[in-house]
Design a protein that fits this description.
This protein is α/β, with parallel strands linked by helices. The chain has a domain of 71 residues: Nucleotidyltransferase, domain 5 (2-Layer Sandwich). Helix content is 34%, strand content 17%. The chain has three helices and five strands. α3 links the parallel β4 and β5. The longest helix has 22 residues.
Length: 138
């Protein structure tokens, strides 16, 4: 018997699992799914008007700044001094507010130079900054 008996000498633990609550929950879930399934697949046919429009998306200006292993900063493949970065970033942002920065840094570059470059870009108002990596994984 699952609930024990009148025998006072039986101190053994209950060995049967009461599955009645489990069956009750499963039946309730089954009824809920049966009721809600037709509601989820119900659709209404609507004839929408057709229109053609050209996509006019102007690509943002992209700045490529490269930091070499020796600490040299290159702006679009032209060597510059680190001190010139804030002025150049501000000038680029004045031309196009959607300017993106693509930063290529050698793996041997000190993090301090990378942080300074990103800070100068951020102070100039650049919000789209991407760090480019080598795609071959070596």
């Amino acid at each position: 018997m699952a609930f024990g008996g009148f025998d006072q000498n039986d101190n053994a633990p209950m060995s049967e699992i009461n599955t009645t609550p489990l069956v009750d929950v499963m039946l309730v879930l089954l009824v809920v799914f049966i009721v809600t399934a037709p509601v989820m697949t119900h659709s209404i046919r609507v004839d929408l008007p057709k229109a053609k429009a050209e996509v006019t998306q102007i690509p943002p200006a992209v700045l490529r700044v490269t930091l070499t292993a020796t600490g040299q900063v290159e702006w679009e493949k032209t060597p510059i001094k680190v001190e010139e970065l804030p002025i150049r970033f501000a000038t680029a942002m004045a031309k196009d507010a959607q300017t993106e920065l693509h930063l290529l840094a050698d793996k041997e570059v000190r993090y301090e130079l990378i942080a300074q470059t990103m800070s100068a870009a951020r102070q100039a108002g650049l919000t789209k900054i991407g760090l480019l990596t080598d795609g071959n994984g070596s």
